[in-house]
């Protein structure tokens, strides 16, 4: 996820964050998968992943997550 309580980075900031921290994950052999969810459009997540351009950063597609808001219209 990109967003945390009180902070929602735009694509430029998310790209900078991943670019900064990814070398440590690569050195440890750890891959990061960003999960899709309704708060951030999938197109923005894909844009960030393409901009970072690392085999250690990818996407975890979770199609049911965006549909949750339709199942709970009162929220």
Report on the architecture of this protein.
- The chain is mostly helical and 75 residues long.
- It has one domain (11-71).
- The chain has 3 helices and 2 strands.
- The chain has helices at residues 11-28, 42-52, 64-71; strands spanning 32-35, 57-60.
- The chain has a two-stranded parallel ribbon.
- Helix 2 links the parallel strand 1 and strand 2.
- Helix 1 (11-28) crosses helix 2 (42-52).
- The chain is globular and about 30 Å long.
- The model has no long low-confidence stretch (mean pLDDT 85).
- Number of extended strands: 2
Summarize the amount of helix as a percent range: 40-55%
- SSE pattern, N- to C-terminal: HEHEH
Structural class: mainly alpha
Q: Per the principal axes of the C-alpha atoms, what is the gross shape?
A: globular
Mean pLDDT: 85
Whole-number count of domains: 1
- The portion of residues forming beta strands comes to 5-15%
Radius of gyration: 14 Å
Number of helical segments? 3
Distance between the termini: 20 Å
Low-confidence stretches: none
- For the biggest β-sheet, the strand order reads 1-2
Largest sheet: 2 strands, parallel
In brief:
By secondary structure, the protein is mainly alpha-helical. The protein contains three helices and two strands.
């Amino acid at each position: 996820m990109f967003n945390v309580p009180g902070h929602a980075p735009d694509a430029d900031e998310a790209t900078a964050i991943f670019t900064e921290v990814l070398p440590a994950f690569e050195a440890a052999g750890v891959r990061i998968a960003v999960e899709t969810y309704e708060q951030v459009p999938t197109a923005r997540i894909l844009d960030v992943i393409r901009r970072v351009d690392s085999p250690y950063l990818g996407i975890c597609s979770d199609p049911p997550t965006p549909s949750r808001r339709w199942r709970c219209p009162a929220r």
